[in-house]
Amino acid sequence: MNKIRKGDDVVVVAGKDKGKRGVVVSRFGSERVVVEGVNRVKKHTKPNPMKGQQGGITEKEMPINISNVALFNSATQKADRVGIKVLEGGRKVRAFKSNGEVLDA
């Protein structure tokens, strides 16, 4: 079960963008995520008239390792670790480690 999913509100806990908050836009495999507004790089693109693409310098978000982000806990207003809880019916849900609050209702 994935502890961090697309659409989650996360905080960067390590790296050049430490402390920034954003939403997970997508996942690359099981180890990397793209977070909105985090790890932005400048990419030089050549013009391609066949595609109608203009050349120049564009900014885009690059993936970062999933170990460098933590879910944002709105109750404590801090980054928090996530664990897996098994409910009575055998259903697995994500829950915060600090206060045990369940994320997936």
Structural summary, described in words:
It is a single chain. The chain is an all-beta fold and 105 residues long. It has a domain at 9-75: SH3 type barrels, CATH 2.30.30. It is built from no helices and 10 strands. The protein has strands at 9-12, 21-28, 32-35, 40-45, 56-61, 64-65, 69-73, 78-80, 82-86, 92-96. The strands form 3 sheets. A 6-stranded antiparallel beta sheet has the order 6-3-2-1-7-8, with no helix packed on it. Strands 4-5 form a two-stranded antiparallel ribbon. Strand 1 (9-12) and strand 2 form a beta hairpin. It is elongated and about 60 Å long. The model has no long low-confidence stretch (mean pLDDT 93).
Summarize the structure.
The chain has 105 residues and is mostly beta strands.
Q: What's the count of strands?
A: 10
The Rg value, from CA coordinates, equals 17 Å
Largest sheet: 6 strands, antiparallel
Number of helices: 0
Largest sheet, spatial ordering of strands? 6-3-2-1-7-8
What is the CATH C-level name of one domain? Mainly Beta
Structural class: mainly beta
Q: Please estimate the helix content.
A: under 10%
Distance between the termini: 15 Å
Question: What CATH architecture of one domain would you give?
Answer: Roll
Return the string of H and E elements.
EEEEEEEEEE
Mean pLDDT: 93
